[in-house]
TrEMBL record:
Repeat recorded as keyword: yes
Gene3D superfamilies referenced in this protein's UniProt entry, alphabetically: Kelch-type beta propeller
Xref: InterPro entries: Kelch-typ_b-propeller
Protein name: Kelch repeat and BTB domain-containing protein 12-like
Family matches, as SUPFAM superfamilies: Kelch motif (SSF117281)
Superkingdom to which the source organism belongs: Eukaryota
Lineage: Eukaryota, Metazoa, Chordata, Cephalochordata, Leptocardii
Key words, A-Z: Kelch repeat, Repeat
Length: 442
């Protein structure tokens, strides 16, 4: 296991490298130093493997074990890992320590985050037919089925710290939305106990208007956004959640004039952007105000935008993936990028979908062969090479079904792998069979 990066926690406390032989002895001293300094346990301790932990316990002779046990995330260990600790001679022979461990495993600490190095980024897609979820990382060739656990919601936010929040509709139809958060340890959504927020009602009753609700994060603050557009006018209304007061606060509204057919709202840096094909606005949370910005001015067969933000830039494309642009939020300038390469006879069934995976821009395309009759659907995944201004086909192999995304923005989550191992072999085997089938047809 590679050593965790060294990190200064306090002027009097410095973490020593896990590769240092003296670390096993020194770590126990660090525990005492941390307790004296009043400093919380560091990422170095939280990222220890089972082998490292048992070595520390064996050198410790149980003097510091009571201090160590409360900080071991037993509920995030697999059953094999837990058994390995319980079977360690020094633990097994000490009935008191064994009882403490078993009690903590049973009780669980569901508010803790997964261990470092034991999570993987996945794009989440939903099977149209079954409703099941597909967790996909094409670069690592991981395709994992999982039952759908997402509640019916007005919006889903995949936050910068890889938490997942949803605003769930009230089952009694009272118009109140409740906030739920994904629990990695329990592999389920739980009510986080935040105050409810009233659902925005549509300004226009015409069903032909575009009405879209979103949940987004800006500067670690959650915003509930509703865009209501019709011919001739439109509104963008927002409320933000205050952790200090546990209340939802009204934000400045954006009133639009003109005819709008689609929109996209997304955070970028410290701001929130509302983008349309020929207009764009920026919301500044510090001033609670909107300002007009330079729009992408995309020409498209359909009024559609696929957008995603990375750092201080926003990437945008049209319905056919012909025009791809990048926006520099600092200079308020758009620049054209390369579009779909080697299109050949392929057409698109649905809109392209931008997403970020491991800090790289990807696009998911639902394509078909224009020269063939009948169904010929094929999903393609490309990754963008910034240095070459080119898209590279990842040769992704998705199970043969139809999908749709969980939200308008990049629905990428960092998930805890031990909970997904049960389905991994099934999809890996499927991918291997498909590879062999492709080779035999070549």
């Amino acid at each position: 296991m590679a050593a965790a990066p060294q990190k200064c926690l306090d002027n009097e406390v410095r973490i020593r490298s896990c590769q240092d032989e003296s670390y096993l002895h020194g770590f126990l001293g660090i525990i005492g130093d941390l307790q004296k300094a009043g400093v919380a346990f560091s990422e170095d301790f939280c990222s220890l493997s089972v082998n490292q932990l048992t070595k520390i316990i064996s050198r410790d002779e149980l003097h510091h074990l009571p201090s160590i046990l409360p900080h071991i995330r037993f509920n995030l260990l697999t059953s094999d890992d837990t058994a390995a600790i319980l079977e360690h001679p020094l633990v097994r022979e000490n009935s008191g320590s064994s009882k403490v461990i078993r009690k903590m495993v049973k009780k669980g600490k569901h508010n803790l985050k997964p261990r470092l190095g034991m999570t993987t980024e996945f794009l989440l897609l939903r099977d149209i037919g079954t409703g099941d979820l597909l967790y996909m990382n094409p670069q690592k060739r991981k395709y994992i089925w999982h039952p759908d656990i997402f509640p019916d919601s007005a919006g889903t936010a995949f936050t910068s710290d890889y938490n997942i929040y949803v605003l769930e509709h009230d089952r009694d139809h009272t118009g109140q939305l409740s906030m739920f958060k994904y629990n990695h340890a329990g592999n389920e959504f739980e009510d986080v106990g935040m105050s409810t927020v009233s659902e925005f009602q549509r300004e226009y009753s015409d069903t032909s208007t575009d009405s879209r609700q979103s949940l987004v994060e800006v500067g670690q603050t959650l915003y509930y956004v509703a865009a209501d557009l019709e011919e001739g006018s439109g509104w963008v209304r927002m409320r933000k959640y205050s952790r200090q007061t546990d209340q939802w606060q009204e934000c400045s509204q954006l009133e639009l004039e003109g005819t709008w057919e689609c929109s996209a709202v997304l955070p970028c840096g410290p701001y929130l952007y509302f983008i349309m094909t020929s207009a764009m606005y920026r919301y500044d949370p510090s001033q609670d105000c909107w300002s007009e910005r330079t729009p992408p001015n995309l020409e498209s067969r359909h009024s559609f935008l696929s957008v995603v933000a990375m750092g201080t830039e926003i990437f945008c494309t049209d319905s056919d993936f012909n025009q791809t642009m990048v926006y520099d939020s600092e200079s308020d300038h758009w620049k054209k990028l390369q579009g779909w390469p080697n299109r050949g006879n392929l057409g698109t069934n649905n809109w392209p979908y931008f997403f970020l995976l491991e800090d790289q821009l990807h696009v998911l395309l639902d394509t078909y062969d224009t020269t063939k009759e009948g169904s010929s659907t094929k999903y393609l995944v490309y990754v963008y090479d910034r240095s070459a201004d080119a898209w590279r086909d990842l040769k992704a192999i998705l199970p043969d079904t139809e999908y749709y995304t969980l939200g308008h923005l990049s629905s990428v989550a960092r998930l805890y792998l031990p909970f997904l191992k049960g389905a991994q072999n099934l999809i890996t085997s499927y991918a291997i069979r498909q590879d062999k089938k492709t080779e035999s047809m070549a």
